[in-house]
Amino acid sequence: MRKPVSLGIAFIPLLVLVALIAAVVSVFGDETLAGASQIALIVAAAVAVGIGLLRRDIVWDDFEREIGRKMGDLSVTIFILLLIGALGGSWMVSGVVPTLIYYGVQMMSPSWFLLSACLICALVSVMTGSSWTTIATIGVALIGIGGAMGIEQGWVAGAIVSGAYFGDKISPLSDTTVLASSTVGTPLFTHIRYMLWTTVPTFAITLLILAAKGIGTGGVDMHQVDLVQKGLSSTFVLSPWLLVVPVITGVMIYMRLPSVVVLFMATLIATVTASAVQGELLDQIAGADHEGWMQRFRGAMIVVSGSTSLDTGVPELNRLVATHGMSGMMGTIWLILCAALFGSAMSVAGMIESIMRSVVRLARGLVSTVACTAATGFFFNVAIADQYLSIILTSNIFSDLYRKRGYESRLLSRTVEDGTTVTSVLIPWNTCGMTQSSVLGVSTLAYAPYAFFCYLSPFMTVLAAAVMRRRRDCKTPFIV
């Protein structure tokens, strides 16, 4: 049997990671995800491995097996990321996103834009059950609309992320919602109804903040808006008929097709649409090496797999409509792999277990138990960098404790969602934080201060526990 690791030793790799990330951010700024953060994770993992190997009961093969298992678990996530990159390229060049931006600028008021963006993303995410799909489609368009209105990207991205994760959290179609409820043993709709007590007030506070910010927003530079619209109309063929592509995508999501199937088909439909509608643009992207159908085929392949750079005559718009395809997600995938390496090293070395034992000892009453549960979920998001594994581990660690104390399973499943699901997107090296940062083109550290719903949720769940304790209505049988 392995000897337990002391708490001080267990924190050493985490402290090394925090110190390196702080140094990386100060030196590289927005370029931290280009490679420096990955190196920081590898170095921190090496520290954990080194400490683990000093123990007589851990050998190198233990680390290799865990790393191999973790990499296998990530295979579907990596493929989804590649498809998201392909989707972004095809939806942009096909004219879908430019059409949304063109008409969105005309319809949305700057004073209410942040509030509207949050509500739109919430509605789409509830219907789709996927924050990732919502952000990769309508979120990208809203970033463009906000940019055309001159609204700070951090605020826009924060509103988008808040709405998307609100919808993801309460949608019965959401994989994280199903995972949290099923892992604990709470009926799905019981779990969702109970979450409303913390989720709705938190979302309401978020909307009030966004509304207040919007009211204080100055007038729009109509000259800049005109430039954006002219740039879009001169570069792309714009038509409301192009919105059939997202409508078809919505139908596939409503049919509850697997995410991989939806993303692949949405990319394929958009690529065919680009070939039919934006033919000259594809020819321009392909260059002059081929003629006829080969030229267009080459352009379509570049859009899906590689980078494109289009000259709209507006420098700010050029940056928006530039795409990176599948290759643009490689930096994110690289970071995910390094994060998995770090999480595997911490797990095998027994450091996560040691930290969790110490956390559980702090859970004495209802409020402290709920607070420790939420803090544990956040900790796993930082240490393991995987949302799904964080949900499972947090649920498993506290399940027996909640049962022994007579707390309902729905209290545990709700707390796990409040502390884990929505905070994952705030961690730069977490799979969620990395993905949304790459898709929106806004660094995690830039939007995190404005993703109010995501970081207010853990505090709301603790506040709700305090209210429950006073009402003395929490001591009901544990639902199994």
Estimated share of beta-strand residues: under 5%
Radius of gyration: 23 Å
Assembly state of the chains shown = single chain
Shape: globular
State the end-to-end distance: 32 Å
Quickly describe the structure:
The chain has 24 helices and no strands. The chain has 480 residues and is mostly helical.
Question: Your description of this structure?
Answer:
It is a single chain. The chain is 76% helix and 0% strand. It contains 24 helices and no strands. The chain has helices at 7-28, 36-54, 60-73, 75-93, 96-107, 113-128, 131-148, 153-170, 175-184, 188-215, 222-235, 244-254, 259-277, 279-286, 292-305, 315-321, 330-348, 351-362, 366-383, 387-404, 409-421, 431-440, 444-447, 452-471.
Give the helices and strands, then pairings:
Blueprint: H1 7-28, H2 36-54, H3 60-73, H4 75-93, H5 96-107, H6 113-128, H7 131-148, H8 153-170, H9 175-184, H10 188-215, H11 222-235, H12 244-254, H13 259-277, H14 279-286, H15 292-305, H16 315-321, H17 330-348, H18 351-362, H19 366-383, H20 387-404, H21 409-421, H22 431-440, H23 444-447, H24 452-471
Helix pairs in contact: 1-2, 1-18, 2-17, 3-17, 4-7, 4-13, 4-15, 5-7, 5-11, 6-7, 6-8, 6-10, 7-8, 7-22, 8-10, 9-20, 9-21, 10-21, 10-24, 12-13, 13-14, 13-15, 14-15, 17-22, 18-19, 19-20, 19-21, 19-24, 20-21, 21-24
